[in-house]
Design brief:
Strand content: 15-25%
Number of strands: 15
Shape: globular
CATH class of one domain: Alpha Beta
Low-confidence stretches: none
Largest sheet: 7 strands, mixed
Helix content: 25-40%
Radius of gyration: 20 Å
Bound molecules: pyridoxal-5'-phosphate
Distance between the termini: 49 Å
Mean pLDDT: 96
CATH topology of one domain: Rossmann fold
Number of helices: 18
Structural class: alpha/beta
CATH architecture of one domain: 3-Layer(aba) Sandwich
Length: about 450
Protein backbone atom coordinates (compact mmCIF):
# COMPACT_ATOMS: atom_id res chain seq x y z
CA UNK A 1 0.00 0.00 0.00
CA UNK A 2 2.81 2.43 -0.87
CA UNK A 3 1.81 6.09 -0.91
CA UNK A 4 4.95 7.11 -2.79
CA UNK A 5 7.04 5.08 -5.22
CA UNK A 6 10.69 6.08 -5.57
CA UNK A 7 13.37 4.99 -7.99
CA UNK A 8 17.08 4.79 -7.23
CA UNK A 9 19.23 7.34 -9.06
CA UNK A 10 20.82 4.45 -10.95
CA UNK A 11 17.35 3.53 -12.29
CA UNK A 12 16.70 6.95 -13.83
CA UNK A 13 16.26 6.43 -17.60
CA UNK A 14 19.49 6.65 -19.61
CA UNK A 15 17.76 7.55 -22.88
CA UNK A 16 14.95 9.89 -23.95
CA UNK A 17 12.14 8.62 -26.19
CA UNK A 18 11.36 10.29 -29.53
CA UNK A 19 7.77 9.65 -30.65
CA UNK A 20 8.19 11.18 -34.14
CA UNK A 21 9.47 8.11 -36.03
CA UNK A 22 6.80 5.85 -34.45
CA UNK A 23 3.79 7.98 -35.50
CA UNK A 24 1.53 6.28 -38.08
CA UNK A 25 1.61 9.38 -40.33
CA UNK A 26 5.09 10.87 -40.89
CA UNK A 27 5.67 14.34 -39.44
CA UNK A 28 5.64 17.22 -41.90
CA UNK A 29 8.64 19.59 -41.85
CA UNK A 30 8.62 23.20 -40.68
CA UNK A 31 8.47 25.64 -43.60
CA UNK A 32 10.28 28.90 -44.30
CA UNK A 33 8.56 32.12 -45.47
CA UNK A 34 8.86 30.93 -49.12
CA UNK A 35 6.89 27.76 -48.31
CA UNK A 36 9.94 25.48 -48.68
CA UNK A 37 11.06 23.15 -45.87
CA UNK A 38 13.47 24.72 -43.39
CA UNK A 39 16.89 23.05 -43.45
CA UNK A 40 18.78 22.52 -40.16
CA UNK A 41 21.37 25.13 -41.26
CA UNK A 42 18.72 27.82 -41.38
CA UNK A 43 18.05 27.38 -37.65
CA UNK A 44 21.66 27.97 -36.57
CA UNK A 45 21.29 31.68 -35.69
CA UNK A 46 18.58 30.65 -33.20
CA UNK A 47 19.67 27.27 -31.76
CA UNK A 48 22.98 25.42 -31.35
CA UNK A 49 23.55 22.57 -33.84
CA UNK A 50 23.55 19.84 -31.17
CA UNK A 51 19.95 20.73 -30.26
CA UNK A 52 18.94 21.18 -33.93
CA UNK A 53 20.15 17.59 -34.50
CA UNK A 54 17.79 16.42 -31.76
CA UNK A 55 14.99 18.53 -33.23
CA UNK A 56 15.17 16.72 -36.58
CA UNK A 57 16.32 13.32 -35.31
CA UNK A 58 14.63 10.20 -36.64
CA UNK A 59 16.11 8.00 -33.90
CA UNK A 60 13.54 6.61 -31.48
CA UNK A 61 15.96 6.69 -28.53
CA UNK A 62 18.60 9.33 -27.70
CA UNK A 63 21.21 8.95 -24.96
CA UNK A 64 21.07 11.35 -22.00
CA UNK A 65 24.66 12.57 -21.48
CA UNK A 66 26.20 11.53 -18.15
CA UNK A 67 26.78 15.18 -17.13
CA UNK A 68 23.12 16.01 -17.77
CA UNK A 69 22.06 13.01 -15.70
CA UNK A 70 24.28 14.23 -12.86
CA UNK A 71 22.51 17.62 -12.91
CA UNK A 72 19.04 16.02 -13.05
CA UNK A 73 19.87 13.98 -9.91
CA UNK A 74 19.45 17.19 -7.91
CA UNK A 75 15.75 16.27 -7.75
CA UNK A 76 15.18 13.28 -10.04
CA UNK A 77 13.91 10.59 -10.18
CA UNK A 78 10.65 12.31 -9.16
CA UNK A 79 8.22 10.40 -6.93
CA UNK A 80 5.04 8.75 -8.17
CA UNK A 81 2.23 9.17 -5.60
CA UNK A 82 -0.92 7.17 -5.04
CA UNK A 83 -3.72 9.69 -4.38
CA UNK A 84 -5.43 7.74 -1.60
CA UNK A 85 -6.90 10.92 -0.13
CA UNK A 86 -8.53 11.96 -3.39
CA UNK A 87 -9.82 8.43 -4.06
CA UNK A 88 -11.47 8.45 -0.65
CA UNK A 89 -12.94 11.93 -1.11
CA UNK A 90 -14.45 10.85 -4.43
CA UNK A 91 -15.47 7.40 -3.22
CA UNK A 92 -14.14 5.97 -6.46
CA UNK A 93 -12.98 2.42 -7.21
CA UNK A 94 -10.32 3.96 -9.50
CA UNK A 95 -6.68 3.85 -8.43
CA UNK A 96 -5.32 7.35 -9.00
CA UNK A 97 -1.58 8.01 -9.36
CA UNK A 98 0.21 11.29 -9.98
CA UNK A 99 3.76 11.95 -11.08
CA UNK A 100 5.01 14.78 -8.92
CA UNK A 101 7.09 17.21 -10.97
CA UNK A 102 6.58 19.97 -8.38
CA UNK A 103 9.62 18.69 -6.47
CA UNK A 104 12.12 20.34 -8.83
CA UNK A 105 13.93 23.45 -7.51
CA UNK A 106 11.89 25.71 -9.81
CA UNK A 107 8.65 23.95 -8.82
CA UNK A 108 7.64 22.38 -12.14
CA UNK A 109 8.60 19.99 -14.95
CA UNK A 110 10.34 22.79 -16.87
CA UNK A 111 13.89 22.10 -15.55
CA UNK A 112 13.76 18.65 -17.24
CA UNK A 113 14.45 20.44 -20.52
CA UNK A 114 16.06 23.63 -19.17
CA UNK A 115 19.02 21.60 -17.86
CA UNK A 116 19.82 19.77 -21.13
CA UNK A 117 19.15 22.88 -23.24
CA UNK A 118 21.53 24.98 -21.13
CA UNK A 119 24.10 22.16 -21.13
CA UNK A 120 24.04 21.64 -24.93
CA UNK A 121 24.35 25.42 -25.49
CA UNK A 122 27.33 25.57 -23.14
CA UNK A 123 28.96 22.63 -24.98
CA UNK A 124 28.52 24.58 -28.21
CA UNK A 125 30.37 27.62 -26.84
CA UNK A 126 27.29 29.78 -26.25
CA UNK A 127 27.51 32.35 -23.42
CA UNK A 128 23.96 33.76 -23.17
CA UNK A 129 20.39 32.50 -23.51
CA UNK A 130 17.24 34.47 -24.21
CA UNK A 131 13.75 33.19 -23.70
CA UNK A 132 10.11 34.07 -23.04
CA UNK A 133 7.97 33.02 -20.12
CA UNK A 134 4.22 33.03 -19.47
CA UNK A 135 3.48 32.32 -15.84
CA UNK A 136 7.19 32.52 -15.02
CA UNK A 137 7.79 28.81 -14.54
CA UNK A 138 9.93 28.43 -17.64
CA UNK A 139 11.88 31.65 -17.04
CA UNK A 140 12.66 30.46 -13.52
CA UNK A 141 13.66 27.02 -14.76
CA UNK A 142 16.02 28.39 -17.42
CA UNK A 143 17.56 30.86 -14.95
CA UNK A 144 18.16 27.96 -12.55
CA UNK A 145 19.67 25.77 -15.29
CA UNK A 146 21.83 28.65 -16.58
CA UNK A 147 23.22 29.16 -13.08
CA UNK A 148 24.18 25.47 -12.87
CA UNK A 149 26.01 25.34 -16.21
CA UNK A 150 27.38 28.91 -16.20
CA UNK A 151 25.37 30.91 -18.78
CA UNK A 152 23.73 34.34 -18.69
CA UNK A 153 19.95 34.27 -19.05
CA UNK A 154 17.54 37.00 -20.22
CA UNK A 155 13.81 36.35 -19.88
CA UNK A 156 10.93 38.23 -21.56
CA UNK A 157 7.90 37.74 -19.32
CA UNK A 158 4.33 38.27 -20.61
CA UNK A 159 3.26 41.64 -19.16
CA UNK A 160 0.11 40.46 -17.39
CA UNK A 161 1.95 37.65 -15.59
CA UNK A 162 4.83 39.99 -14.75
CA UNK A 163 2.32 42.22 -12.94
CA UNK A 164 0.40 39.33 -11.35
CA UNK A 165 3.42 37.30 -10.21
CA UNK A 166 6.17 39.64 -8.99
CA UNK A 167 7.99 36.94 -7.02
CA UNK A 168 8.77 34.92 -10.15
CA UNK A 169 11.09 37.77 -11.18
CA UNK A 170 12.81 37.57 -7.80
CA UNK A 171 13.33 33.83 -8.29
CA UNK A 172 14.90 34.45 -11.71
CA UNK A 173 17.16 37.15 -10.26
CA UNK A 174 18.16 34.88 -7.36
CA UNK A 175 19.47 32.41 -9.94
CA UNK A 176 21.26 35.23 -11.79
CA UNK A 177 18.72 35.75 -14.61
CA UNK A 178 17.26 39.05 -15.88
CA UNK A 179 13.49 39.44 -16.28
CA UNK A 180 11.90 42.04 -18.60
CA UNK A 181 8.13 42.61 -19.01
CA UNK A 182 6.99 42.00 -22.62
CA UNK A 183 6.27 43.83 -24.85
CA UNK A 184 9.29 45.95 -23.96
CA UNK A 185 11.21 48.82 -25.52
CA UNK A 186 14.39 46.70 -25.68
CA UNK A 187 13.51 45.18 -29.10
CA UNK A 188 12.28 46.42 -32.48
CA UNK A 189 9.22 44.11 -32.27
CA UNK A 190 8.39 45.22 -28.73
CA UNK A 191 8.59 48.92 -29.62
CA UNK A 192 6.31 48.41 -32.64
CA UNK A 193 3.69 46.53 -30.61
CA UNK A 194 3.82 49.08 -27.78
CA UNK A 195 3.23 51.88 -30.29
CA UNK A 196 0.16 50.07 -31.69
CA UNK A 197 -1.22 48.67 -28.38
CA UNK A 198 0.26 50.53 -25.40
CA UNK A 199 -2.00 48.73 -22.90
CA UNK A 200 -1.66 45.20 -24.24
CA UNK A 201 -1.44 42.43 -21.60
CA UNK A 202 1.16 40.80 -23.87
CA UNK A 203 1.14 37.20 -25.08
CA UNK A 204 3.54 34.30 -25.42
CA UNK A 205 3.61 34.94 -29.18
CA UNK A 206 4.87 38.51 -28.61
CA UNK A 207 7.40 37.49 -25.95
CA UNK A 208 8.82 34.77 -28.24
CA UNK A 209 9.28 37.37 -31.01
CA UNK A 210 11.22 39.61 -28.61
CA UNK A 211 13.41 36.79 -27.26
CA UNK A 212 14.26 35.50 -30.75
CA UNK A 213 15.10 39.02 -31.93
CA UNK A 214 17.33 39.59 -28.90
CA UNK A 215 19.22 36.36 -29.67
CA UNK A 216 19.72 36.75 -33.41
CA UNK A 217 20.74 40.43 -33.25
CA UNK A 218 23.56 39.92 -30.71
CA UNK A 219 26.66 41.03 -32.68
CA UNK A 220 28.97 38.65 -30.75
CA UNK A 221 27.10 35.59 -32.07
CA UNK A 222 27.32 34.03 -28.60
CA UNK A 223 23.61 34.27 -27.77
CA UNK A 224 20.98 31.66 -28.59
CA UNK A 225 17.29 31.34 -27.89
CA UNK A 226 15.71 28.58 -25.78
CA UNK A 227 12.06 27.55 -25.95
CA UNK A 228 10.32 25.88 -22.99
CA UNK A 229 7.73 23.90 -24.92
CA UNK A 230 6.32 23.14 -28.41
CA UNK A 231 9.53 21.97 -30.15
CA UNK A 232 10.40 18.31 -30.74
CA UNK A 233 13.56 18.40 -28.62
CA UNK A 234 11.60 19.82 -25.67
CA UNK A 235 9.06 16.96 -25.88
CA UNK A 236 12.02 14.58 -26.10
CA UNK A 237 13.68 15.84 -22.90
CA UNK A 238 10.38 15.68 -21.00
CA UNK A 239 9.84 11.98 -21.79
CA UNK A 240 11.93 11.21 -18.73
CA UNK A 241 8.65 11.82 -16.83
CA UNK A 242 6.70 9.03 -18.50
CA UNK A 243 9.67 6.65 -18.69
CA UNK A 244 10.20 6.94 -14.93
CA UNK A 245 6.46 6.58 -14.33
CA UNK A 246 6.34 3.28 -16.23
CA UNK A 247 9.24 1.92 -14.17
CA UNK A 248 7.50 3.01 -10.96
CA UNK A 249 4.20 1.40 -11.94
CA UNK A 250 6.05 -1.82 -12.80
CA UNK A 251 7.77 -1.69 -9.42
CA UNK A 252 4.41 -1.85 -7.61
CA UNK A 253 3.08 -4.45 -10.05
CA UNK A 254 0.51 -2.14 -11.64
CA UNK A 255 0.25 -3.81 -15.02
CA UNK A 256 -2.42 -1.97 -16.96
CA UNK A 257 -2.98 1.78 -17.17
CA UNK A 258 -6.43 2.83 -18.41
CA UNK A 259 -6.22 6.62 -18.50
CA UNK A 260 -3.28 9.04 -18.81
CA UNK A 261 -3.96 12.75 -18.26
CA UNK A 262 -1.84 15.92 -18.53
CA UNK A 263 -2.57 19.61 -18.94
CA UNK A 264 -1.46 21.03 -22.29
CA UNK A 265 -0.24 24.55 -23.02
CA UNK A 266 2.54 24.11 -25.57
CA UNK A 267 2.30 20.39 -24.87
CA UNK A 268 5.54 19.53 -23.08
CA UNK A 269 4.54 18.12 -19.68
CA UNK A 270 1.68 16.25 -21.31
CA UNK A 271 3.99 14.82 -23.98
CA UNK A 272 6.61 13.98 -21.37
CA UNK A 273 4.23 11.85 -19.37
CA UNK A 274 2.11 10.54 -22.24
CA UNK A 275 4.43 9.73 -25.16
CA UNK A 276 5.87 6.53 -23.65
CA UNK A 277 2.23 5.42 -23.21
CA UNK A 278 1.36 6.58 -26.75
CA UNK A 279 4.07 4.17 -27.91
CA UNK A 280 2.19 1.36 -26.11
CA UNK A 281 -1.05 2.53 -27.69
CA UNK A 282 0.49 2.44 -31.18
CA UNK A 283 1.59 -1.12 -30.37
CA UNK A 284 -2.00 -2.09 -29.48
CA UNK A 285 -2.55 -1.16 -25.80
CA UNK A 286 -6.01 0.14 -24.89
CA UNK A 287 -5.31 3.46 -23.14
CA UNK A 288 -7.30 6.67 -23.11
CA UNK A 289 -4.75 9.50 -23.33
CA UNK A 290 -6.15 12.95 -22.55
CA UNK A 291 -4.46 16.34 -23.01
CA UNK A 292 -6.48 18.99 -21.13
CA UNK A 293 -6.60 22.63 -22.20
CA UNK A 294 -8.51 25.72 -20.99
CA UNK A 295 -11.91 26.36 -22.57
CA UNK A 296 -10.68 29.92 -23.23
CA UNK A 297 -7.76 28.70 -25.37
CA UNK A 298 -9.12 25.55 -27.08
CA UNK A 299 -6.24 24.80 -29.44
CA UNK A 300 -6.66 21.03 -29.76
CA UNK A 301 -10.42 20.84 -29.31
CA UNK A 302 -11.53 23.68 -31.62
CA UNK A 303 -8.66 25.04 -33.71
CA UNK A 304 -7.64 23.58 -37.10
CA UNK A 305 -4.48 21.56 -37.83
CA UNK A 306 -2.64 24.09 -40.01
CA UNK A 307 0.72 25.63 -40.79
CA UNK A 308 1.24 28.64 -38.54
CA UNK A 309 3.97 30.81 -37.13
CA UNK A 310 5.10 30.10 -33.58
CA UNK A 311 5.15 33.81 -32.73
CA UNK A 312 3.32 37.04 -33.45
CA UNK A 313 5.99 38.75 -35.56
CA UNK A 314 6.72 35.84 -37.98
CA UNK A 315 10.28 35.31 -36.66
CA UNK A 316 9.83 31.51 -36.38
CA UNK A 317 9.31 28.98 -39.20
CA UNK A 318 5.78 27.82 -40.04
CA UNK A 319 4.98 24.71 -38.00
CA UNK A 320 2.33 22.05 -38.70
CA UNK A 321 0.16 22.27 -35.59
CA UNK A 322 -3.25 22.92 -34.17
CA UNK A 323 -3.40 26.71 -33.91
CA UNK A 324 -5.79 29.51 -33.05
CA UNK A 325 -3.69 31.82 -35.24
CA UNK A 326 -0.49 33.63 -34.29
CA UNK A 327 -2.29 36.92 -33.59
CA UNK A 328 -4.44 35.32 -30.87
CA UNK A 329 -4.34 37.34 -27.64
CA UNK A 330 -5.87 35.15 -24.96
CA UNK A 331 -8.21 36.39 -22.25
CA UNK A 332 -6.28 36.86 -19.01
CA UNK A 333 -7.22 33.62 -17.23
CA UNK A 334 -4.85 32.66 -14.48
CA UNK A 335 -3.26 29.63 -16.09
CA UNK A 336 -0.63 31.76 -17.82
CA UNK A 337 1.24 28.72 -19.10
CA UNK A 338 -1.77 27.41 -21.05
CA UNK A 339 -2.40 30.52 -23.11
CA UNK A 340 -0.29 29.74 -26.19
CA UNK A 341 -2.00 30.00 -29.58
CA UNK A 342 -0.45 26.80 -30.94
CA UNK A 343 0.33 23.28 -29.78
CA UNK A 344 3.45 21.16 -30.16
CA UNK A 345 3.60 19.64 -33.68
CA UNK A 346 4.14 16.17 -32.13
CA UNK A 347 1.08 16.50 -29.86
CA UNK A 348 -0.91 17.94 -32.79
CA UNK A 349 0.14 15.08 -35.07
CA UNK A 350 -0.71 12.44 -32.44
CA UNK A 351 -4.15 14.07 -32.09
CA UNK A 352 -4.63 14.07 -35.86
CA UNK A 353 -3.68 10.37 -35.90
CA UNK A 354 -6.46 9.63 -33.38
CA UNK A 355 -4.08 8.62 -30.57
CA UNK A 356 -5.26 11.32 -28.12
CA UNK A 357 -8.64 12.47 -26.82
CA UNK A 358 -8.24 16.17 -26.02
CA UNK A 359 -10.63 17.89 -23.61
CA UNK A 360 -11.24 21.57 -22.70
CA UNK A 361 -12.34 22.63 -19.21
CA UNK A 362 -13.34 26.05 -17.84
CA UNK A 363 -11.20 27.67 -15.16
CA UNK A 364 -13.80 27.68 -12.36
CA UNK A 365 -14.17 23.88 -12.50
CA UNK A 366 -10.36 23.67 -12.51
CA UNK A 367 -9.94 25.79 -9.37
CA UNK A 368 -12.71 23.84 -7.65
CA UNK A 369 -10.83 20.62 -8.48
CA UNK A 370 -7.52 22.10 -7.29
CA UNK A 371 -9.04 23.07 -3.94
CA UNK A 372 -10.56 19.61 -3.51
CA UNK A 373 -7.17 18.09 -4.35
CA UNK A 374 -5.35 20.37 -1.88
CA UNK A 375 -7.75 19.40 0.90
CA UNK A 376 -7.43 15.69 0.12
CA UNK A 377 -3.74 15.40 -0.83
CA UNK A 378 -2.10 18.54 0.56
CA UNK A 379 -0.37 19.83 -2.56
CA UNK A 380 -1.53 23.22 -3.88
CA UNK A 381 -1.11 22.73 -7.63
CA UNK A 382 -0.27 25.31 -10.29
CA UNK A 383 -3.29 26.75 -12.14
CA UNK A 384 -2.08 24.94 -15.27
CA UNK A 385 -1.95 21.63 -13.40
CA UNK A 386 -5.48 22.17 -12.08
CA UNK A 387 -6.74 21.30 -15.57
CA UNK A 388 -5.23 17.81 -15.23
CA UNK A 389 -6.71 17.49 -11.74
CA UNK A 390 -10.18 18.49 -13.01
CA UNK A 391 -10.08 15.88 -15.79
CA UNK A 392 -8.81 13.26 -13.32
CA UNK A 393 -11.78 13.96 -11.05
CA UNK A 394 -14.15 13.68 -14.03
CA UNK A 395 -12.61 10.30 -14.93
CA UNK A 396 -12.65 9.04 -11.33
CA UNK A 397 -16.34 9.90 -11.02
CA UNK A 398 -17.01 8.15 -14.32
CA UNK A 399 -15.22 5.05 -12.98
CA UNK A 400 -17.45 5.19 -9.89
CA UNK A 401 -20.58 5.45 -12.02
CA UNK A 402 -19.42 2.56 -14.20
CA UNK A 403 -18.29 0.60 -11.12
CA UNK A 404 -14.88 0.04 -12.72
CA UNK A 405 -11.48 -0.27 -11.00
CA UNK A 406 -9.66 1.91 -13.52
CA UNK A 407 -6.04 2.96 -13.19
CA UNK A 408 -5.68 6.70 -13.80
CA UNK A 409 -2.28 8.40 -14.01
CA UNK A 410 -1.98 12.17 -14.19
CA UNK A 411 0.92 14.60 -14.40
CA UNK A 412 1.28 17.00 -11.49
CA UNK A 413 3.31 19.44 -13.56
CA UNK A 414 3.94 22.04 -10.84
CA UNK A 415 2.98 23.55 -7.51
CA UNK A 416 1.03 26.80 -7.28
CA UNK A 417 2.76 28.48 -4.37
CA UNK A 418 3.79 31.37 -6.64
CA UNK A 419 0.31 31.58 -8.17
CA UNK A 420 -1.93 32.16 -5.18
CA UNK A 421 -3.55 35.26 -6.68
CA UNK A 422 -5.72 33.01 -8.84
CA UNK A 423 -6.82 31.04 -5.77
CA UNK A 424 -7.57 34.29 -3.97
CA UNK A 425 -9.78 35.46 -6.84
CA UNK A 426 -11.50 32.07 -6.94
CA UNK A 427 -12.36 32.27 -3.23
CA UNK A 428 -13.58 35.86 -3.68
CA UNK A 429 -15.90 34.71 -6.50
CA UNK A 430 -14.13 37.03 -8.94
CA UNK A 431 -13.22 34.47 -11.60
CA UNK A 432 -15.24 34.15 -14.76
CA UNK A 433 -15.42 31.32 -17.24
CA UNK A 434 -14.77 32.11 -20.84
CA UNK A 435 -15.64 29.48 -23.43
CA UNK A 436 -14.26 30.51 -26.81
CA UNK A 437 -17.18 30.34 -29.24
CA UNK A 438 -17.01 28.94 -32.79
CA UNK A 439 -17.39 32.51 -34.10
CA UNK A 440 -14.44 33.70 -32.01
CA UNK A 441 -12.35 30.78 -33.27
CA UNK A 442 -13.30 31.57 -36.90
CA UNK A 443 -12.23 35.19 -36.38
CA UNK A 444 -8.99 34.23 -34.65
CA UNK A 445 -7.81 31.74 -37.29
CA UNK A 446 -8.13 34.40 -40.02
CA UNK A 447 -4.51 35.38 -39.32
CA UNK A 448 -3.53 32.05 -40.96
CA UNK A 449 -5.31 32.77 -44.25
CA UNK A 450 -2.97 32.46 -47.22
CA UNK A 451 -0.43 30.30 -45.37
CA UNK A 452 0.46 26.85 -46.80
CA UNK A 453 -1.78 23.95 -45.71
CA UNK A 454 -0.43 20.69 -44.24
C1 LIG B 1 3.19 24.06 -14.02
C2 LIG B 1 2.96 24.15 -15.48
N1 LIG B 1 2.27 23.18 -16.09
C3 LIG B 1 2.04 23.22 -17.41
C4 LIG B 1 2.48 24.25 -18.20
C5 LIG B 1 2.14 24.26 -19.65
O1 LIG B 1 3.23 24.07 -20.50
P1 LIG B 1 3.43 22.72 -21.27
O2 LIG B 1 2.16 22.43 -22.01
O3 LIG B 1 4.56 22.95 -22.19
O4 LIG B 1 3.73 21.66 -20.27
C6 LIG B 1 3.22 25.28 -17.62
C7 LIG B 1 3.73 26.38 -18.45
O5 LIG B 1 4.19 27.38 -18.02
C8 LIG B 1 3.47 25.22 -16.23
O6 LIG B 1 4.15 26.18 -15.64
Amino acid sequence: MAVKVFLDEADMPKQWYNLGPDLPTPMQPPLGPDGNPVSPDMLTPVFPMNLIEQEVSQDSWIDIPEEVRALLYRWRPAPLHRAYGLEKALNTPARIYFKNESVSPAGSHKPNTAIPQAWYNKQFGIERLTTETGAGQWGSALSFASALVGLECKVYMVRISFDQKPFRKVMMETWGGTCIPSPSDTTEVGRKILAEMPDTPGSLGIAISEAVEAAVTDPTGKTRYALGSVLNHVMLHQTIIGLETKKQLAKINEKKVDVVIGCAGGGSNFAGLAFPFVKDKIEGADIDIIPVEPASCPTLTKAPFAYDFGDTAHMTPLMPMHSLGHKFIPPPIHAGGLRYHGMAPLVSAATRDGLLNPRAIGQIECYKAAVQFARAEGIIVAPETSHAVAATIQEAIKAREEGREKVIVFGLSGHGLMDLLGYEKYFAGELEDHYMSDDEVRESVKSMEGLPKP
